[in-house]
Structures are given as C-alpha cells and as structure tokens.
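Hi L.,

You mentioned the student needs an example of a multi-chain input paired with its predicted structure. This one should do, with 777 residues in total across all chains.
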Amino acid sequence: MSTFIKVNEIKPYTKNINCVFIVLDKGLPTKKKEGTIFQVLVADSSAAINMTLWDVIGEQVQPGDILRLKGGYSNIYIDLLNLYVGKTGLIEKIGEFTFPFVEAPNLSATLWNVHPDPNNPKNMVATPKIKSNPMKPNPMIQHPPQQPK
Amino acid sequence: MMNQQPSQQPTTVPQIPLQSSQQQLPIQQSSPIQQSSNPTQSNPQPSIQQQQHLVSQKLKLFHKREVDEPDPLELVWRDCYEKIEQLLINSTENDINNSLVEKTSDASDVKTHTEITIGLLYAILISVPQSNLGAQYFKSLTFVSKDSLLTFCNLLKKMIGDKFQKLNDNPRQQVLWIINELINNNHPESESVSSITLRHIYGGNLLQKNLSLGFSMLNIFISHKAWLYNKPNFIPIVLYHYLRLIQDHINKPPPFNPSHLKEETMFCLDLLKNRFQECIVIGRDLIRLLQYLSNKTPEFEQLWKDLNSKPTSFSSSYQDISQSMRIPTPKHFLQSRLSPEMEIQVLYILKEVKFGNQKRYQQWFVTKYLMTPESESLIPDIIRYICCVYHPPNHVLCSDIVPRWAIIGWLLKHCKSDAWRNYSKLSLFLDWLYYEQKHDSIMNIEPAILLMAGSVKKYADMTIDLVEYIIGTLLETYDPQRKELIKTGIGNSFSTLLEKNVVQSLNHVFPPDFIGTALYERIKQNFHSLLTPSNQQNKPLNSSTGGINKPSPLSSSSGGFPTNNTHHQQQVKSPLLQPNSLQNSSGSIPNNKNLPQQPPQQPNLPNNSSQPFVNKPSNQPILQKSPP
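Structure written out for the whole complex:
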C-alpha cells in the first residue's frame, strides 16, 4: 500500500516518494548525453519544489497538469533539493487545472551542505546552509547517475 | 426532461470513479495495476512501467500519451467488456442474446445488468464505424436492457460530459452513431444525450475536428426534422448553439466550407420562422445573437428587418423585440456554450482560488482556450456565463476568493479586437438594458458595477471605457428606436444597485478626479437623480477622511468589497453587513441620498496584485540551476 505525502514532507535523499502535485512552470529543454531533460516547478497546497523530467515525459508535461508521482526520490544537486522520478518510479498525468497550490515555500530555494553520514559514511546527508553566508556551489558534489527511461 | 447540469446527472453506477474526485483522493485510485507494490531490483515481476505498458495497449477508448494515466473509467469499462468479450466475438447473434438474457435474468441483480450494459456500450464504442458490429451490439443491448436503455444513456451522458474531448476518433464517431440511433428510436434520452454533445462543439475554435463535430450534429438534426419539431424544449437549445456557432463561421477562409454556413443559416432561419414560439423562450440573448448576425449576413439582416418591422408576422402576440429583451435568458442556454471542462475551470477559479493567486490559472485557461484570434468570440460567452449562471453564495462573497468582476475585467483586457471587446461589453451590460427589479436578478448586473468601482482607482481606463460604453453606445447608438426604454432600464439598474448597497453611491464609482470631469458631467446629465447631493455640489471627495486611497474604516473592518455586497442577494438585513445602516441612526432602510459623504471604498486588492486583470506570465525565476 503506497502512502502519499505532501510536497513539504520531501527531505533530501527521501526514497520512494508518492506525491500528487500540479506543474506551475516548465523550463527549456537541455540536451544531455543520455537524453533531453526538462526542469519543472511543481507544487501542492503545502510547498513547491523543482523536478527533473526526461525526454518524452518532459516534452508532454505542460504547466497546469496535475501529476501523480510514485516511487520517486529526492536528491541534492548543486546545493539544491530536486525531485526525480528515477528508473523504478512512475509519473502520470491524472488531470489538469483544478488543484490548489502554493508557490512558497519553494523547497528548491534553500541551499544545502552535503557530507557523508558520520554514522554510515557510505550514505550522504545534507544540512541546510545558513542563509546569510551563502557559499558558492561546490562543483565536486557527487550526483547519482541519472538514466533516461 | 433535460438535465443541463453535468454535475447533477444521475450516476447509476457508484463503482465508477468520478473524475472530479481524483484530485482530492489521489490515494484511492482504483486501478489494480497502480496498487501494486513498488518493485525492488530483485523482484522478477515486471516493473510498474512495463505493467503500465501492457495495460495501455488494450485501451482504445481515450487518447493516451506516454504521460497520461490509463483512464480510470476505461479500466472499469474494459473489465466489464472483457467479461463478455469472448461471447461477443465467438457466438452468433442469437447465442449472444440468449446468453446475455440468461445472465441478467435475476431482476434483483442490478450489478450484473449494469456490467453487461457497460460491456456492450464499450463494445459499441470501440467497434469500427464501417463494420456492422456496433449495430449488432446495439441490437443486443436493446434486447437485454431492462430499463429501456436508461442506464445505458446515463453512462453515456456521464462519459460524454466528462471525457468527450479525450475520445479517440473512432469512438467519437460511434458516439454520433449512437445519437443517431437514439433519435431514430425517438428515445426519451435522445435530447439530453444530444445536448451534452452539443456543448463539446467549442465556440471560437476553427479546427477541423471541431468544425466537423458541429456539422455532423447539424446533419443529424436536419435529417430528423420531424423528431426535432416534436421537441419544443430542445428546439431553442439547438437554435442557440447554432446561432452562436454561425458567428464563428462567417467570412471564414478554408478549411471552413462556406456551404456549411449556408446550411446552418437555413436551419436556424427555418426554426425561427416556423417555430418562433419555442425560440423566444431564449429571451434577451436570442436578440443579442440575432442582432450580431444581422450586421453580418444578408439572410439575418432580412430577418432582423422583418422582426423589427412586422413582429406580429412571427407570432400574433409578438409586438416588439423589447418583449424578448425583458425576458432574462434561462441559465441553461448560457451554460450550454461553455464546454463542461471549460465550465469546471471557470468555476474552480470563482469558487476556490484566492484573489491575487489567480494569475497562473488565468494563464492556463488562456493557453488552453484563448490563444487564437478567433477564440476571442468565446469571451462574450464566458462573460454571460459569469454574470448569469454562477451567482456566488454569501460565504463566497464574504471570503477572499476571486470576485466575478475581477475575472470579467481580465477577460475584457484579453480581447485584442475592438469588435469582440465591444460585443463583450454588451454581454456584460445586457441585463441592464431592460432591468426590472421584479423580473431580473441583481446578481446579473452586480459584476459590471463592481468592475467599474473596483477598477476606478488603479485602472481608471477600465471604468472610463465602461462608462463611455454605457453613455456613448448603450444610451445613444445601440438601439435609437428604444432609447428611452434602455435609459429607464439602466437607471433601474443603478438605483437597485444603490438601494441594495452593492455600491455606496455613484460618487464612489465615478469620482470625477479619476474619470475626468467631462465624463462625470455626462453621467450627471443622464443620471442626475442618482448622484448624491454632496457630489453635485462638487464637494471635494474624502475631505473628511483624508487620502483617497485610504480604505474607509468600515470597508476594511468588514473585508471591503466582497463583504459589502453580501446582503444584496437575499436582502439579508444584517446591520453588520451593511455599512450604511451602521451610520444610519434612525434605523430605517439606508438611503444613500441622505447620508453624509463617505470616502470611496478601496476594493480588497491584495498587496501583490499590482495588476489584477492583466494576465502576465509570472516572471518569478524558478530554475536556478540545471541538474544533469
């Protein structure tokens, strides 16, 4: 039985995310070696977050679409929280327009520090950066490989 | 009887998930596939995506792209179909009928009867139009059905209402075929199924698919003229649809076929000439459409002349078109020109969205329906709908939900062409022209006055434009023959709005400082008696309370505009909701003329809505960085 969460419950490195949200905005496509990616801003009544979509799904998704994500995950990419569908996840359009949303807080506006988990160095953990001391994004930050579907 | 409200249509099959509940109950999706546990790497089962793909291949009813979920309604219908699929494919017609009759022999077993009805409906919809199978299944259906196809029609109507636009081409054609069959059989539901389908012919849309739907339906009616002539309630509905659609088809280049326009015109003229009594129940919007067309085609020009010069030739009791102008158009006509989906979206904004948060919804609405120049012809329809069909209850009027006037203001601003903008203004003021308190709803004229009042401070051009339209057009050139009647109607509108405290006084709506003294003088000439004495002496506004933009203490404490007009709907005499009565120590019904000058009210504009009407794409940066 899958449990659905609200967008504001998404934390860094959350796995198996089930969530319903509406697409507020869509960025221009970016060509990558593995395919084309689209960045979208999605939101529900609790918060907004940036999300990465690949190829045909990214092409078809439009602002105003209500999407249902199953088995997605979150990650920190260049200091920012981002939502992914992943290889085993599923994203589907289930409607459009009639969905309440807020634009703030935008979870992808907070900067995060990423470091190995002291208890289990194989895992990465993230802690929020102090806002008054913004650091430059660290280009060395590891990012789990993304595969197109 | 016809049921024009899709939300109220009876749903006989409770197990079918309603589309509207999807968004609120995402967890309760009924698809068996979707409830599967999330696969792990070691799991030999097919992945969610693979399962999904297998299901999708079988679905034929609705258009489905990669991103779309398998339609929940189709999953249920497909299940019912699969239970009888083998029977339908492998048996003779006789065997099919015998077997289905046997299955449904238990009269108390409604479920099986419904399932078999769904299965046959699905089978008809997915069969190829050229084959004989659809007809054969329909025959079986009439054989098996125990309620003279009532369940069948209800299922069909629900599907058409919610999902017609999603149908693949083949099922779409089959729907038309079923309508034809229902009419052939003079089925009691043939009108209601036709009505709900007519709503899917979009106004302001010249795409081939839309044009051909309109023409197919017209052909059905033309070829069943005797049936139509026997449906007095349906005649004005069809007429209203096609008079409206003709607007879109005049002087249109290919792919529009000019012979179609001719047929539509002949069809409408025939109804108007031969079934006039049925047609005039449409009321004032019939005149609005006919007047528009009278300037566009010679046929309607002639009709308009006849209607004006010899009205009794249409009906002995018909003396003048002002008779029609006095009849408020029944809501279902105005509702019918919005597709069900469009209606849901407009209502969502007006019921759920907070004032100041509407911009994205407006943008999405524009992207979907109002992107092309020809789509502007939809705007008068939407304005008529907002004024006359949706009347917000008091709790919405009291809340911070987007008011109707703000959406109308945005729609007017969206009109790029002068012609459609003027016609939109006529739509906004149509109920003013012959307004009578005892026949007309104040809620029909409320948006226009609040739009003028709500715009005057920050967007005086909107208020000025509307006032000029009243004075320069409606009172002068719109209908010179009936000038006095219109002046009385508009005067009645203003005085009712004042009497019910929708606005405190006309001085607040038309402050000379904002609309200019010249225009103010023209208002004074026409509606002298409605202006408060203090203003006629040109007493400076707000002299007692300071800045003009400062909300009055009353309006801010009571929530400003939305609260202020809460009472007029039912004339609730709550002193708390009537600012004027608070000041009226005598306790009598407040009379604006005797009240001391009050500062104009500041509409309850949220701080961040610097331009509530202008639809501007949000320029908030959202994508700071691009992940891999």
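You could point out the following to them. Chain B touches chain A at residues 19-20, 22-23, 26-27, 29, 34-35, 37-39, 47-49, 52, 65-69, 344-345, 348, 352, 360-361, 363-365, 367-368, 618, 620, 622-628 (CB under 8 Å). Residues 63-196 of chain B form one domain.

Best wishes,
N.
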